[in-house]
Design brief:
The protein has two helices and four strands, in the order ββαβαβ. The chain is of the alpha+beta class. The longest helix is centred in the C-terminal third of the chain and has 6 residues, at 43-48.
C-alpha cells in the first residue's frame, strides 16, 4: 500500500519536501506544513517509499 495523504493515528509521518520520516510525536512534525505531511502505517513502508529516518527522533 502506498502512503496516503490523509490518515488518522499514523505512527510515522513523512515530509514530502525533505523526504525524511518521523514519529508522530517528533517536534519537527509540528513545524511541518500540512501540505507536506505523508502518513505511513509502518517504518518499512516509509523506507520503501524512499524516505529516510529523522536523526532526532530516530524512528
Amino acid at each position: 500500500m502506498l502512503a496516503s495523504s490523509v490518515a488518522l493515528g499514523s505512527d510515522y509521518i513523512g515530509n514530502s519536501n525533505s523526504h525524511k520520516f518521523h514519529y508522530a510525536s517528533c517536534r519537527y512534525v509540528s513545524r511541518m506544513s500540512e501540505t507536506h505531511k505523508i502518513f505511513f502505517e509502518s517504518r518499512d513502508e516509509a523506507i520503501d517509499a524512499g524516505y529516510v529516518p529523522c536523526k532526532v527522533c530516530r524512528p
